[in-house]
Amino acid sequence: MSALAISSSTFAVAIVVLLFALFLILLLGSFVRSRRAASTRAVAQPRASGIAAPAAPAAPKPRRLVARRDFLRGGLLTSLVIFAAQFGGATLAFLWPNIKGGFGSVILLPDSLDSIKSQIATSRQPYYFGAGRFYIINYEALGGTGTHSIYQGLIEDGLMALFQKCAHLGCRVPFCQQSQWFECPCHGSKYNEAGEYRLGPAPQGMYRFAVKVEGQSVKVDTSSVVLGPPRGTDTIRQSPEGPFCV
Ligand code: FES
Question: What pTM, to 2 d.p., does this model score?
Answer without folding.
Answer: 0.65
